[in-house]
Design a protein that fits this description.
Chain A has 194 residues and is α/β, with parallel strands linked by helices. Chain A contains six helices and nine strands, in the order E-H-E-H-E-E-E-E-H-E-H-E-H-E-H. Chain B has a seven-stranded mixed beta sheet. The longest helix of chain B has 15 residues, at 4-18. The chains are: A alpha/beta (194), B alpha/beta (270).
Amino acid sequence: MAEDGLSYKVVVIGGSAGSLELVLKITQAFPLNSGAIFIAVVHRKSDADSILASLLASRTLLPVREVEDKETIQPNTVYLAPPDYHLLVEDRLCFSLDRSEKIHYSRPSIDVTFESVAHTFGAATIAVLLSGANADGAEGMLSIKQAGGITLVQDPSTAEVAYMPQQAIRQEAASHIIAADELPGYIRNMLEAV
Amino acid sequence: MVKEDELELLLQTLYQLYGYDFTNYAKASLKRRVNRLLVIDRFPSFAELFYQVKNDPDYLSHVVQQLTVNVTEMFRDPLLFKAIREQVLPILATHPVIRIWHAGCSTGEEVYSMAILLQEANLLHKSLLYATDINPLVIENIRRGIFPVSQMQQYSENYHASGGREEFSKYYTVKYDLVKFDESLKSKMIVATHNLVADRSFNEFQLILCRNVLIYFDRDLQEKVLNLFDQSLEKLGFLVLGSKENPRFTDFSKTYTQLTNNQKIWRKMG
């Protein structure tokens, strides 16, 4: 059981350029009955349709949802931030969306979701930051670490684009730095150990 | 980062002193807006912001503008506009007068987009476009019809993706880094402040657009505003929401049918 009394984990993943393949592999490794909530924020073109949601759904038996406004948060479900919206958690039971200014040239912004998750789920959070050419995510990782959550950063030497994980490491936002190959199994083990 | 009790204090004060009720806004987003205000106006802490709000009534309109999100585009979500062009306007064309309400329209990009659609369908002359927003500052921009030239390439792409066949630049004239849209486009616009939280229905419409406004409200306020739209919509009228918004209120699914496409357009059947 987590320090703040939550009996489940929230796994939140941020990825940008060069992260897609690893996002899919991590999704494939999610256990089916951990009770965890999975949230993915992946930078993509704003006019993209829901291809990413179908790609994720092809890798897991868990239900995959591209989040709609005020959607109820349920365990054992994979949620995806929709294109051109910031994804926030309103409280432990409800998402909300926001179409305000881009952050780090990005909407959805990883920082926005990470900070919101840190505030609501605190120590129950496992955050994962992957490949990218952008500084988005580093501050959010720090918020999650400060809130008592665990932050996993992809080893930059194993990332297609090293900049994003490097920024998080530079800001001392990483609890652990893990090679791309090992991340899916690492996350799975953390969830099975709950 | 502003704390829960500070946010509540600010909201109570805005309501009691000025009558602006943000208490049913979605908190996660609103908190970010307050934090953003602290940063852009360089307040060292919440206390200084609070002092200014309490003691400087002239600062209020700026606060209202910054707490609400005023990010908008012309022909944003082009496929929605394509659906309006192809599936909604032909039906509206049968009415002697077409009344359209853009609720929470911010700086008016969407209203100008609609005016262009209507003009191309040869319907603008018999249409009235009611453009309302809570912010007195942003709606001034609708009256001016002036937008940054830097956006025009994106808007032109959106316009063509929505089924537009003209040169987009024929609708405006460029002056330095701004463009001014044709006077004819705004000839049928009626611009006013209207607060969806507090103000009532003021007319009946055949088409109401309210996109990416409800996302900033909690579920209770969403239901209240959807009821306001229901009261303001004629039978067989159309309601258009944002691409990730869903109308949830009692009996909605009994009275409204979503058009058979992937767009958030509903028709009031009952």
